[in-house]
Amino acid sequence: MTTTFERIAADIGARIASGELAPGDRVPSTRRIVADYGVAMATATRALDALQRRGLVEARRGVGTVVVEQPGRSARDSLRSGSRTAPTVDDVVRAAMAIADEEGLPGLSMRRIATDLGLPTMSLYRHVANRDELLAAMLDRVYAAHPLPDPLPDGWRDRAEACARTFWTAFQRHPWAAHAMSITRPQVVPHGVAHTEAMLAAFDRAPASRPLDLETRMHLAVTLFLFVRGVAVNIEPALAARQDTGLSDEDWMNRAKPPLQAAADPRQYPHLARATASELDITLDSLFETGLARLLDGYEVFLTR
Amino acid sequence: MTTTFERIAADIGARIASGELAPGDRVPSTRRIVADYGVAMATATRALDALQRRGLVEARRGVGTVVVEQPGRSARDSLRSGSRTAPTVDDVVRAAMAIADEEGLPGLSMRRIATDLGLPTMSLYRHVANRDELLAAMLDRVYAAHPLPDPLPDGWRDRAEACARTFWTAFQRHPWAAHAMSITRPQVVPHGVAHTEAMLAAFDRAPASRPLDLETRMHLAVTLFLFVRGVAVNIEPALAARQDTGLSDEDWMNRAKPPLQAAADPRQYPHLARATASELDITLDSLFETGLARLLDGYEVFLTR
DNA sequence: AGGGCGCTCCGTACGGTGTACGCAACGGGC
DNA sequence: GCCCGTTGCGTACACCGTACGGAGCGCCCT
């Protein structure tokens, strides 16, 4: 989808590229654009803004917007994000986290955040570009609130375990975080960098008979992370379901059991039948614990073999 | 939230419970309810329907709805679901799967399915109760399309691995399935029962020095499943992002790299810096392979210890 | 001093979602 | 021929993210 302001920006950008507008020339002013394209001030502003971000033009207050000398180098960017970041981004992010912690990601909407803060909905967009950026900022706070233990333990195994446990407690406190993270498209989350580094570094200390190449170490680190997250993504749905059915897990189990037992014909499915029949103490936490222990055992076999 | 028809059903249900309406009595007809409560036919029908499902009343064509002799036993239920299931549920589910396979769960909407089938949106609700039930039906088809290998291998390890691989190929073909599954609130999915059973059964054959209790075996089975799913949930986002940015993974990596490298100060984060600097061959598939091998190694240590 | 400029602020509105409910027509039993 | 339960679809609601509109502010140059 190309939006109106993107079209206008592309238009003017082409005129700069063609040489019709030379360095030092003033590009059409916001009001000029308003008249020419039949759009609103804000839209025109946004178009010029886009050109600025690309470093093609430079805004001069009270004067106009001019084509820059050599494209690509612009001090504006940091300035802008600086002034944007200053006042209340933190309030917004904090409010969003409070909602997400309580009601999960499905309950988190821009309108809801705004209501909680007593602000108009659209005013949030002065502080965050969009929902995804907000989520990234929330993740950043999670990382910041759950730093790694400072002197990390010494051996590779203790180190890896410490990293995994840090993630786990973070996910327990903020179940939505597991969902919000993406491996395949890593967001750049400042406070998360240290965690990634520590995970990677853990396997440097491995007592391998042969040296481990970077690729192998990456595999071990990422796999461990994926496991932790894989267990953690189940926390949020459990909470959500508990909340909007008003049933505790136990109540729910009791209600869900009859059809499950009905499906589990003891003749055809003996193990399942026995499993549903007995009261088992299986929680996400106990699953995390067994999985972590087994996985690291497996790493040990691999590393010392 | 209690809907209108639920309120009416509760109302009449109370009158039956109180004895005001005795077995054999006719409860208010649909049109009576329409008049009394000021609602539409369909709403009244739905209220009576709810009472039927609970087995409190029985509908007699051309006569009316009467209170049943002994509550709880009603042949209606199977009849109804039978007639509902007959015509085109399968078409709906198949169409939904085609969309989900192609565009992921976010692209799957009731309107979209209806459009593809050339049907009015609301007509879908004759075949499935709601979106969640549709998802369960889709999952069922996935299980059905990916049965376990028929003579399962003999040893516990080969068996567990076979199960894990079956899940993995299913997830690769239908990435959305990983998201749609829930452990904490297991849906009853007919064709999935066999998979669950096989997973549990695998650890029966373990050559444990001491006998394994059911709880431990459950932990091993569920943890393995959680790992596979934990890796698989990443497939869909990767596909979705590739689709709506139009970038291949490689293109995207190239675009994402500069800011990542900028964040990875080699002095502070040497491993991360080296990782981002080199071309690594890490795919979800390779992560699955290492993880599976390591985890089962870990199981082996645990089981033979 | 005044006019033009970039810019900030927030409100309105669009295109999407799932699905509750309304309305009209159908066919069977009395 | 009446009243019954039933079917089939359309309309409308409450929600979502956010693009765009329009008014007003304060800076800068002439």
Description:
- Two copies of one chain form a homodimer.
- The first copy, chain A, is an all-alpha fold and 305 residues long.
- Chain A folds into three domains: 4-82, Orthogonal Bundle (Arc Repressor Mutant, subunit A), CATH 1.10.10.10; 84-144, Arc Repressor Mutant, subunit A, CATH 1.10.10.60; 146-305, Orthogonal Bundle (Tetracycline Repressor, domain 2).
- Chain A contains 15 helices and two strands.
- The first copy, chain A, has helices at 4-17, 30-37, 41-53, 76-85, 89-103, 110-117, 131-145, 156-173, 176-180, 193-202, 214-232, 235-245, 249-263, 270-277, 284-304; strands at residues 57-60, 64-67.
- The first copy, chain A, has a two-stranded antiparallel sheet with strand order 1-2.
- In chain A, strand 1 (57-60) and strand 2 (64-67) form a beta hairpin.
- Chains A and B meet through helix 10, helix 11, helix 12, helix 13 and helix 14 of A and helix 10, helix 11, helix 12, helix 13 and helix 14 of B.
